[in-house]
């Protein structure tokens, strides 16, 4: 078991021999201005008032939160604002133990797919308020709002167990 | 729709490693390209066009690397293009190259894919700060771990399946001199003892970060005349879907199912479980072996883990998967999909060396990317279509 040699071109020779440049670091930076768009702007303004504003597709009737200007399935413009509740059901989750560049949260932390009441697809949120080994599919959670609200999803600090009984598995089966 | 026959007549890959300090990015792609040309008995002068693929530019911070790699790949004065479909890119790059042959545009196309993870930070690049949102998802593992948990729940799979795949693919890699990981003595206890990175995914159930490249020479029927052992492209397929939409099944994505069915139709395969002999499937986290077996229709829904558990997917089993060691043993991201396609070709050419699947006549190469939303697949055969 061996690797055949790579057919090579002529080697470069220097006199006197130079020590090779093995590596240089070139930090890259990108500053940009983003336009949130019409539907997301309404959503972000509602966030700063402590409301979750979704958007319904006129064809499939599905409610998106965060809202979409067009329905990803039907390709038509969404037409109707729908208030979504700041509570929902955990459909699946992950405990992150691995450090990484740009990490903000303390390890380990739990993130979960939460199907909010009134929305038709789950969204990832940070879960706090219970040990990681007690989290489960079907658990009911509610939003804990930040002290200062603003036009950002950071207005929700995290989700915590709401104390309600677990959801009926049939109510979230297609989202697991 | 008539297509010109297309054959793989040359395959080359680098020795994959966590740090290939001995070569630059141009040196890395050239190592794979020269091996593929050598295998085909050709030189750069014989090539009509070059098709290059790699994962996002943010990884190495080199924007449009095809510009600076043109000279290293002998592309001066020739058509050259770059393909980008996230992690599936190695597969879709090979498919674009195959289509240039099948469309009758070119006779010999060199296709190359690479990643030099030691010069990049993929974990950073895959943990984006999305405007107006907190940063929650930690790299690819952070995205895929909840899907793995959903699969385990839905299939009722026992927890050791992920461990079994992790051991099996590393045992396969011991037979592949190009593989990044050569873990002598790997066993279940080692995998089980490794840290839980993204619960339920352990460290040793995760792919490594690799530097590496893969290349193939694809040829028309006329140009393949005289090639000792061509692998004929029997079918190709690509499909995609959005990351998020209501009713999306991210565990068993529709795009993957549709891609596989379109592939089997084009290849004239009615019963893939019997007509395919082996597969190279893109499995970056061990649980994705049973998940993709089901998505590809190679196992019934909820039953893929039984194939793993019975040993069917190990070398010597009835349907070996990732005889090369797979992505779990070498992961130069942009090249990982092309390695699946190239290893499938090596199998039907009978040139896979110590990881050869006995009597392999038809093999599947599979790649996926993004949030399980881009799929690229091909079937290669020892028989001309």
Write up what this structure looks like.
The complex is a heterodimer of chains A (176) and B (385). Chain A has two domains: 36-84, no CATH class; 86-176, no CATH class. The longest helix of chain A is centred in the N-terminal third of the chain and has 10 residues, at 38-47. Chain A has one helix and eight strands. A five-stranded antiparallel sheet of chain A has the order 6-5-4-7-8, with no helix packed on it. Chain A has a three-stranded antiparallel sheet with strand order 2-1-3, covered by helices on one side. Chain A has 176 residues and is mainly beta. The model of chain A has no long low-confidence stretch (mean pLDDT 89). Chain A has one helix at residues 38-47; strands spanning 52-56, 63-64, 80-84, 87-96, 109-116, 123-127, 140-145, 156-161. Chain A is elongated and about 75 Å long. Chain B contains 13 helices and eleven strands. In chain B, helix 3 crosses helix 13. Chain B has 385 residues and is an alpha/beta fold. In chain B, strands 3-2-4-7-1-8-11-10-9 form a nine-stranded mixed sheet. In chain B, strands 5-6 form a two-stranded antiparallel sheet. Chain B has a domain at 6-122 and 209-224: Peroxisomal Thiolase, Chain A, domain 1, CATH 3.40.47. The model of chain B has no long low-confidence stretch (mean pLDDT 95). The longest helix of chain B has 17 residues, at 139-155. Chain B has helices spanning 25-40, 65-69, 89-102, 122-125, 139-155, 161-173, 188-193, 221-224, 254-267, 272-275, 288-295, 304-309, 333-349, and strands at residues 6-13, 49-53, 80-83, 108-116, 196-199, 201-202, 211-220, 231-240, 278-280, 362-369, 374-381. The two termini of chain B are 14 Å apart. Chains A and B meet through strand 2, strand 4, strand 5 and strand 6 of A and helix 1, helix 5 and strand 5 of B.
